């Protein structure tokens, strides 16, 4: 039970339940509710069967605003707790710790009730079939909608009087969903025209939802969804290669304008760096303030791509801004990268109730007091007003929660503002940076939002990718480029060190060298949950980038090892594609082949790209095996690619990559510990080209030479034939048929930047 505590110390609690011994920050937040919570597991299931009562399943995560609201309104309410304890067995699940459980019941709620979100509230039979569900419920009936207490009474009544109907309905729903979500391919081949058609269809569907006023796709609430930008950039590249440069430019301009609006908007934390989850309005101004690791990694990669295409440092600054925020606030002592920061925090030290955005917003008077002579200048730049500035849209602050408060947003360009103030742009930027640093120092003294210091393999994989890529792409910033707070302006190679430490943490703490299996997450030790498809796929993608952008061969070896385990655990060898779980945990009643590319890409989309990339690194039967698995996977989702490409933008990219007639390989040969080698790597990655692979090899290293002898003998031969002790040699190849060797990094960069004639 939620036992009543007796002690009298300042740390005593009136109630303590079974969640008190868990590691998840979210579960620990509920450890002292009067609700008799159980964690997901056999003890709870057995209790429901013994008492013959339904299960109330509540799923959320530690930085979820509406989860906090429902806790305060219902789970801390003794009357509600009594109903739950008397009539149900109540289970709490952290969706970040158990995405497999979340997927089952979120799919059910979305299918039956046309909407989803967190907190997810679902009632189950003792054998875990869903009976009824929803998301957030207010405690009492309101606006014609039932309150949580009413819902509890209705479920109790239905369980007592219509149990058979209820259980049959839940069983039927799961059977239907299982059939729909375990799609198999009718063929292991893709129709030849499908990849190009899917890319075009997805780009057209996104273009129809483009917002020409504020950038991005769709309307309020507006989410970054980096996979959309990735699709548009990739499609623009394909258009350019086919001679349609005007169409390509039109698409690029959509992406670039959206990225500029996001960077100027309140969704971007101008003072501390990084991006918030989404904007409640259409103008990227007032955000939902939580910061999620999966956003930071993906958004960084999109800005890096924009910089690669344009060489405009405004994009590289944003990439650095995000990564420097992560290095400062989100990395543990052993290099592990944490999951999230909450939207809510106390407005003042000692306050018992938290408020969304309290850590991030400012009054006009605070700006005056902190910035003195530069206050007016800063307030003009960031649209700060005494009455508050959350007035750009009727969606920005419909309930006046931010009255008198300001969320920083840049309304005019830096060049325009600098001109208005009669100063050079550099000086203007310098003053803004100094002002932001002063605000940062004051903000650091405020009560901080809760940090979820759980380490999730999949999200670390996404971030390892962006850190590794930044280490070389940012070397192409012009010499003498200046940086302004919160950007540190470090040597880009430092980002590679951070990426390698994060990968090493996962390998030492969450990977079993004997079984070659991953665990999903870490907090005070590995989680009980095994690695899921996303953990393998996202980490493999990160490791491939870690290798290609200058990390050791060991990361490529591990990626190949993990791919073999992924195939063993998740691959449907007959029907094609990957399931999201191994199927070994029988309490997870739905095994899904996920295809939707949402806030996070789908494990199948990322896997398809990984397989294409791996097939270009190795040769022979293993290369063919990877390509065949990629094509079979994409064939599973043929209908989706044909009809609803906008739901699967990254999968469209994967199809495009697979269908590229001959991928480009750049092979760098030489001693890797030289500055010259770093320069060549930067040149190899200077241009945006998702259809190229970079291989680097030192043929005097016996381990490297042996690896390539075994996995791609052509690379080993090239390396031995072109090695020179005093220089680096680059070979640019199509399917390992190579042009003349290059010994100058500038010539390599120029060759790779050539546009098709």
Automatic annotation (TrEMBL):
> Any idea what this protein is called?
Spermatogenesis-associated protein 20 isoform X1
Per the UniProt record, one Pfam family is: Thioredox_DsbH
The record places domain Spermatogenesis-associated protein 20-like TRX at 16-176
Task: Name the Gene Ontology biological process terms.
Answer: carbohydrate metabolic process
Q: Which InterPro entries match?
A: 6-hairpin_glycosidase_sf, 6hp_glycosidase-like_sf, Ssp411, Ssp411-like_TRX, Thioredoxin-like_sf
Query: What broad taxonomic lineage does this protein's source fall under?
Result: Eukaryota, Viridiplantae, Streptophyta, Embryophyta, Tracheophyta
Q: Name one GO cellular component term.
A: chloroplast
Q: Which CDD domains match?
A: SSP411
Highest taxon of the lineage: Eukaryota
């Amino acid at each position: 039970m939620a036992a009543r505590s007796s002690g009298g110390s300042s740390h005593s609690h009136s109630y303590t339940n079974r969640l008190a011994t868990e590691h998840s920050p979210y579960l620990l937040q509920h450890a002292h509710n009067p609700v008799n919570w159980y964690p997901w597991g056999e003890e709870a299931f057995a209790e429901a069967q013994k008492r013959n009562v339904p299960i109330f399943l509540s799923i959320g995560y530690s930085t979820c605003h509406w989860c906090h609201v429902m806790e305060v309104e219902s789970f801390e309410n003794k009357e509600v707790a009594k109903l739950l304890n008397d009539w149900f067995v109540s289970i709490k699940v952290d969706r970040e710790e158990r995405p497999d459980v979340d997927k089952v019941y979120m799919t059910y709620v979305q299918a039956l009730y046309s909407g989803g979100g967190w907190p997810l509230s679902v009632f189950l039979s003792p054998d875990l079939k869903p009976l009824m569900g929803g998301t957030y419920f207010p405690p009492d009936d309101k606006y014609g909608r039932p309150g949580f207490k009413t819902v509890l009474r209705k479920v109790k009544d239905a369980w007592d009087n219509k149990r058979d109907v209820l259980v049959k309905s839940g069983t039927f729903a799961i059977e239907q969903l299982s059939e729909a979500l375990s799609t198999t391919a009718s063929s292991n081949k893709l129709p030849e025209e499908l990849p190009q058609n899917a890319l075009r269809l997805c780009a057209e569907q996104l273009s129809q939802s483009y917002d020409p006023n504020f950038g991005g796709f769709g309307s309020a609430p507006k989410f970054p969804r980096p996979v959309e930008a990735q699709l548009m950039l990739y499609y623009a590249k394909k258009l350019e290669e086919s001679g349609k440069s005007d169409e390509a430019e039109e698409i690029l301009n959509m992406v670039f304008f959206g990225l500029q609006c996001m960077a100027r908007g309140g969704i971007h934390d101008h003072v501390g760096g990084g991006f918030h989850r989404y904007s409640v309005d259409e103008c990227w101004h007032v955000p939902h303030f939580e910061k999620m690791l999966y956003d930071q990694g993906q958004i960084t990669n999109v800005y890096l791509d924009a910089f690669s295409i344009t060489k405009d440092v405004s994009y590289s600054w944003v990439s650095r801004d995000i990564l420097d925020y992560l290095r400062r606030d989100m990395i543990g002592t052993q290099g592990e990268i944490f999951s999230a920061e909450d939207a809510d925090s106390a407005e003042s030290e000692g306050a018992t109730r938290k408020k969304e955005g309290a850590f991030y917003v400012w009054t006009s008077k605070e700006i005056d007091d902190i910035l003195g002579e530069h206050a007016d200048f800063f307030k003009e730049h960031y649209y700060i007003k005494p009455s508050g500035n959350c007035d750009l849209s009727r969606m920005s602050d419909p309930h006046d929660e931010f009255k008198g408060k300001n969320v920083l947003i840049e309304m005019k360009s830096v060049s325009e503002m600098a001109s208005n103030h009669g100063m050079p742009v550099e000086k203007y930027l310098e003053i803004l940076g100094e002002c932001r640093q002063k605000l940062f120092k004051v903000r650091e003294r405020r009560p901080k939002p809760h940090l979820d210091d759980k380490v999730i393999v999949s999200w670390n994989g996404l971030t390892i990718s962006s850190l590794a890529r930044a280490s070389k792409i940012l070397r192409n910033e012009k010499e003498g480029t200046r940086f302004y707070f919160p950007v540190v302006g470090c040597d880009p190679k430092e980002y590679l060190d951070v990426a390698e430490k994060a990968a090493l943490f996962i390998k030492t703490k969450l990977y079993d060298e004997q079984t070659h299996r991953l665990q999903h997450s870490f907090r005070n030790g590995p989680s009980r949950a095994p690695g899921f498809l996303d953990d393998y796929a996202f980490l493999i993608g990160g490791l491939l980038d870690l290798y290609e952008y200058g990390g050791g061969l060991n990361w490529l070896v591990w990626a190949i090892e993990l791919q073999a385990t992924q195939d063993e655990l998740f691959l449907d060898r007959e029907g094609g594609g990957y399931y999201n779980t191994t199927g070994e945990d029988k309490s997870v009643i739905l095994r899904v082949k996920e295809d939707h590319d949402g806030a996070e890409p789908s494990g199948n989309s990322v896997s398809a790209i990984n397989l294409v990339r791996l097939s270009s690194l190795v040769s022979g039967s293993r290369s063919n095996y990877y390509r065949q698995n990629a094509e079979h996977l994409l064939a599973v989702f043929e209908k989706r690619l044909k009809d609803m490409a906008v739901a699967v933008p990254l999968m469209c990219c994967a199809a495009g990559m697979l269908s590229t007639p001959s991928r480009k390989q750049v092979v760098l040969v030489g001693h890797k510990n030289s500055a010259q080698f770093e320069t060549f790597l930067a040149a190899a990655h200077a241009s945006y080209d998702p259809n190229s692979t970079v291989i680097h090899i030192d043929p005097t290293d016996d381990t490297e030479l042996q690896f390539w002898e075994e996995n791609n003998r052509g690379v080993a031969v090239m390396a031995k034939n072109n090695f020179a002790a005093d220089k680096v040699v680059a070979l640019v190849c199509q399917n390992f048929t190579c042009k003349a060797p290059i010994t100058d990094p500038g010539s390599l960069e120029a060759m790779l930047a050539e546009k098709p004639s």
